[in-house]
């Protein structure tokens, strides 16, 4: 298929993100933020219960179960705590008691909980910075899985935490939450898609790469062979229209870098762009690049029909 984007796009306007889609995207982000915040809220409730055993702030030091929480309330993140020795940690906790909990008087437990949540809020904010990309990856993954299962095709997936490939489970609900790669068979050939990979010949991270190989052979040696790349693409899940243009500039620069790097090796893998926030000017530019052949395919992440179409194309390569 020379122009696969014609299967779901008639003009650049089809790529534009509607107001309704933007609104739905913000709601989805809010729900995800609340989901991620739930463990911290539960920890804060437990902290309040345990800390209430102390009659005054100094007695908190005798409660062994909450020393880690005291360090968090002192403003020390989990990452920062790895660089502190026991003396530094004790000084931080004592500073919390002397400067904030003692002045709070009888309300020192509430003050402790508030400060614990303040630090945890920063942690949550950090994890949310790339949540758009994470949610975009999940949506594309679920679409690929749906396409494969409807066609009666098996798949294997790469666990993001264990880095181990395994066959698809019978009950694969939420598998996309932990998936870093997915592999399937097209005809007699195997295909393996890996997310967030630094391509050696490009020397930059690429959001998704589709390889001409089975999952068993995926290795750094495969990453160095430009002939095995079938498709590479940029996936931008940020829904805020204010940042759409910046995301597109980053993606276009990445795609241009990819094209030049592979051209030097005499190969031309398919390229694609999938974005959630696509404004009018962007849509027009993307459409022009599609017609010129600079990009092989593109889709708006918020349009289910477009995602289904680009997924079918990916699974057929």
Question: How would you characterize the overall build of this protein?
Answer:
The structure is a single chain. With 317 residues, this protein is an alpha+beta fold. It is built from 10 helices and 8 strands. It has helices at residues 19-51, 67-73, 78-81, 86-101, 108-128, 131-150, 220-223, 244-263, 280-292, 304-316, and strands spanning 155-159, 165-167, 179-186, 189-199, 204-211, 229-236, 270-275, 297-300. An 8-stranded mixed beta sheet has the order 2-1-3-4-5-6-7-8, with helices on both faces. Helix 8 links the parallel strand 6 and strand 7 (270-275).
Shape: elongated
Number of helices: 10
Q: Report how far apart the termini are.
A: 10 Å
Helical coverage, percent range: 40-55%
Rg, Å, rounded? 24 Å
Largest sheet: 8 strands, mixed
Which keywords apply here?
alpha+beta
Summarize the SSE layout with pairings.
Layout: H1 19-51, H2 67-73, H3 78-81, H4 86-101, H5 108-128, H6 131-150, E1 155-159, E2 165-167, E3 179-186, E4 189-199, E5 204-211, H7 220-223, E6 229-236, H8 244-263, E7 270-275, H9 280-292, E8 297-300, H10 304-316
Parallel strand pairs: 6-7, 7-8
Antiparallel strand pairs: 1-2, 1-3, 3-4, 4-5, 5-6
Helix pairs in contact: 1-5, 2-4, 2-5, 6-10
